[in-house]
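[audit] Reproducing an earlier prediction to check determinism. Same input, same settings, fresh worker. If the tokens differ from the archived copy the diff job will pick it up downstream; this log only records the rerun itself.
[audit] input (161 residues):
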Amino acid sequence: MERHLADTASLFFLTWAAAMLVIRLFAGRAHDRYGDNAVIPLALVSMASGLGLVAVASELWHFIVAGILGGLGHGVVVPSLQAISIRRTTAARIPVTTATYYLAIDIGGALGPVALGFMVQVAGYPGLFLAGGGIVLVSMLVYWLGHGRHVFRRRLPRQVL
């Protein structure tokens, strides 16, 4: 099924960028107020849902909603994970931590399209976007194992007291 993705790509990415910029006005406050485990998983689900919706989209409004969902998730995840990484290091290592964080984002942005590019020939664009959404969902497990489960355990005694 050809859906003329090239015709709607500009609107999709414009919507993604707009949602990403708008949510950043509120994301930091929400992260500070509700904590890592309330914000990060929801943002990752939002981002994965946006990518999944692109995979099955057949109408222009589907792409617009997908751009909003993806942009909201992306706009929350990037600064929130940076805040977590900075909070988990010493003051002297903040510049190194920040540089490493953005290096990882740049590597993902450079290698991701190359690594998943073969998917277009094998499974088409729907398969590509489903794979991207699946990777985002797997990252939620990585987040939980590497950070989220420890935050919950540390906060529990403080809440009980």
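[audit] rerun output stored. Observation attached for the diff report: DSSP finds four helices and no strands in the chain.
[audit] end
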